[in-house]
Amino acid sequence: MNFLKKEITTIAILIIIGVFILIHSSPFLSVRTHVFVTGHPIRAFKGTVHINKGQYNMDKSKLDKENAMIYTITGNNLYDIETGNVIINYKVTKIGFLYFVKDYGEA
Question: pTM of the entire structure?
Fold first, then answer.
């Protein structure tokens, strides 16, 4: 019985690690996951995610040092639950082969 518990625990940990790698495997999935987790589950899949070249060009030197790119989600407005401000830009940083997202200011 003890062996079965260890096996189930190992499988559960491997599944969690696999899902983590999957949702951080591309910038588009990372942005959608971030929007989903921050309280907009339906809007995470309704909007279109694309690169915001204008914002990137304005902050190019800083973003190149951080190995980051600016992405925008369009198609619907997302509002911060606490402040009520519109959220449209996201900074996606590549670390190794994974992508991580943070909210980014508007132009």
Answer: 0.80
